[in-house]
Amino acid sequence: MNIFHKMKNIFIGTYRNIFNKKPEFAKRRIEICDKCEFEKGKGKTRYCGKCFCLIESKTSVKDEYCWENKW
Predict the structure, then answer these.
(1) Do 67 and 47 touch, CB atoms closer than 8 A?
(2) Residue of 50, 54, 65, 67 with fewest CB within 10 Å of its CB?
(3) Distances, alpha carbon 47 to alpha carbons 36, 40, 44, 71, in Å
(4) What is the longest distance spanned by two Cα atoms in the chain?
(5) In which band, very low, low, confident or very high, does the pLDDT at 43 lie, cut at 50, 70 and 90?
(6) For 47, phi and psi rounded to 5 degrees?
(7) pLDDT tens-digit profile of 10-32?
(8) In terms of Cα–Cα distance, which of 9, 62, 71, 63 is closest to 34?
């Protein structure tokens, strides 16, 4: 994934996180993250201890993936 594509994903995920606009697939991904041993933080500031991305943002972008291949 090139840097511009990654930046676009970060923008989209952050927008959806701030305005609470989650696609249906994000809800399933968040449920998986809720049970993960790498989940850190609380609420909208929860992040992955493996990739350090904000869970609420990363899970809402279709072409992002879990570094642990859980989703």
Answers:
(1) no
(2) 67
(3) 11, 5, 9, 15
(4) 31
(5) confident
(6) -140, 165
(7) 999 999 999 999 899 999 999 99
(8) 71
* 45: Cα separation from own chain's centroid: 11
State the amino acid at position 26 in one-letter form.
A
Q: Would you tell me how many other CB atoms lie within 10 Å of the CB of residue 43?
A: 6
pLDDT digits (tens, 9 = 90+) for 45-70: 899 999 999 999 999 999 999 999 99
pLDDT of residue 45: 87
- Vertex 24, ends 21 and 28: CA angle to 5°? 115
Other C-beta atoms within 10 Å of 13: how many?
A: 21
Of 57, 69, 68, nearest to 26 by C-alpha is 57
pLDDT average, residue stretch 32-42: 95
Say which DSSP state 54 is in: B
